[in-house]
């Protein structure tokens, strides 16, 4: 039995296991300790998610007072514990409080809701007004943020490598976009379909940031997690869609392993078959298509990607080539055979070495 109308939720984190694995091996205990605790907590949550999927969980419905087309956000405070959701600290309509983390989480949920509603006429992440819940101040020195199939959870970071996970709005958008994928294509979280799953979250996380800032594709930094890394880290973000493999190059974290083309595709059994690594390839394809088209990336490139994600033809086990082929079809269907949209999409996939069948 699965929740959410038959879709299988997965446990998705924004910081890849390969980064935490590297930190856990650091000689400095102030770095290794929090990373090891984070890995242990993530493993627990992953197992808990799997058990909930097997046993079933109650469906989440919008409360009676929630108006269609309006967000229904609730922020909870775990108080550095691990019981979810924690103490309710801000409801929809409440004024901002003194806790900046609570305020950022509330604003990030709202920005995500707004992009999907205004750009794609989607009412919350399930398309049916799903309440958006988030827990902040999770655990001690917890170095991650995650979507567990039902809600968002944010750690405060350790202050040495990671800062507060509510700082980058694209991290919030990234995790909630996993929920959109969960309720639509439900891409399997392994190998190429898993990398597509991660890429969809990076794409829409980046679009949420661009929408909030009013940026064009040319103005955007195309970074995921800018502002998350502490000053001691030699790096600018967790990932770069513009230049995969360049987000960080640090003595402790190592070098960003993401490839930008199929020539450098990474074959590994770790990280669910490299879902956070090989996502750099479809990420780069989206960047190339969006910047070739110019203007606001959510309007044309984003619309094509959204059409594929929600169109019903994208299979759970879809490979990069399957997804690319569907984006070509979606570009034709929405913008016509002779448009620049089709040309931009075809060329983008060619540049990253993915065939459109």
Features:
357 residues, alpha+beta, two-stranded antiparallel sheet, 10 helices, 9% strand, disordered N terminus
Q: Any overview of this molecule?
A:
The chain has helices at residues 17-24, 29-55, 100-120, 169-183, 191-213, 271-274, 280-293, 301-310, 320-335, 340-351, and strands at residues 12-13, 73-77, 87-91, 132-136, 145-147, 152-154, 223-224, 239-240, 249-250, 254-255. The model is unreliable at 1-6 and 51-58 (pLDDT under 50). By secondary structure, it is of the alpha+beta class. The chain has ten helices and ten strands. The strands form three sheets. Strands 1-5-6-4-2-3 form a six-stranded mixed sheet, covered by helices on one side. Strands 7-8 form a two-stranded antiparallel sheet. The protein has a two-stranded antiparallel sheet with strand order 9-10.
Counting helices, strands and paired strands, the structural category is alpha+beta
Q: Can you summarize the main beta sheet?
A: 6 strands, mixed
Strands, total number: 10
Order of helices and strands: EHHEEHEEEHHEEEEHHHHH
Mean pLDDT: 92
- Uncertain regions spanning at least 5 consecutive residues: 1-6, 51-58
- Evaluate the radius of gyration: 19 Å
Helix and strand topology:
Layout: E1 12-13, H1 17-24, H2 29-55, E2 73-77, E3 87-91, H3 100-120, E4 132-136, E5 145-147, E6 152-154, H4 169-183, H5 191-213, E7 223-224, E8 239-240, E9 249-250, E10 254-255, H6 271-274, H7 280-293, H8 301-310, H9 320-335, H10 340-351
Parallel strand pairs: 2-4, 4-6
Antiparallel strand pairs: 1-5, 2-3, 5-6, 7-8, 9-10
């Amino acid at each position: 039995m699965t929740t959410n109308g038959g879709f299988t939720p997965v446990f998705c984190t924004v910081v890849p296991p390969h980064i935490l694995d590297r930190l856990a091996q650091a000689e400095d205990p102030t770095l290794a300790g929090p990373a090891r605790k984070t890995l242990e907590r993530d493993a627990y949550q992953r197992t808990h998610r799997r058990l909930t999927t097997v046993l079933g969980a109650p469906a989440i419905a919008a409360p009676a007072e929630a108006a269609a087309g309006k967000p229904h956000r609730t922020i909870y405070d775990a108080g550095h514990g691990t019981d979810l959701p924690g103490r309710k600290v801000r409801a929809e309509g409440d004024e901002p409080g003194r806790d900046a983390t609570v305020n950022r989480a509330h604003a990030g949920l709202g920005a995500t809701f707004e992009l999907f509603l205004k750009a794609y006429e989607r009412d919350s992440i399930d398309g049916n007004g799903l309440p958006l819940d988030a827990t902040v101040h999770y655990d001690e020195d917890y170095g991650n943020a995650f979507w567990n199939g039902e809600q968002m959870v944010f750690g405060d970071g350790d202050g040495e490598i990671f800062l507060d996970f509510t700082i980058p709005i694209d991290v919030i958008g990234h995790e909630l976009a996993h929920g959109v994928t969960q309720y639509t294509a439900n891409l399997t979280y392994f190998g190429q379909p898993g990398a597509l799953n991660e890429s969809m979250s990076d794409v829409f996380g980046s679009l949420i940031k661009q929408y909030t800032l009013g940026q064009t594709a040319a103005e955007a930094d195309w970074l995921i997690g800018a502002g998350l890394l502490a000053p001691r880290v030699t790096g600018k973000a967790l990932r770069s869609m513009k230049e995969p493999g360049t987000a960080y190059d640090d003595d402790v974290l190592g070098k960003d392993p993401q490839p930008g083309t199929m020539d450098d595709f990474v074959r590994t059994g770790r990280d669910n078959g490299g879902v956070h690594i090989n996502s750099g390839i479809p990420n780069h394809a989206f960047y190339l298509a969006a910047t070739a088209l110019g203007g606001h990336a959510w309007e044309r490139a984003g619309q094509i990607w959204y059409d594929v994600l929600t169109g019903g033809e994208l299979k759970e086990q879809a490979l990069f080539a399957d997804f690319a082929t569907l984006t070509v079809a979606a570009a034709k269907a929405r913008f016509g055979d002779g448009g620049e949209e089709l040309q931009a999409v075809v060329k983008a996939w060619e540049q990253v070495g993915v065939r459109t069948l």
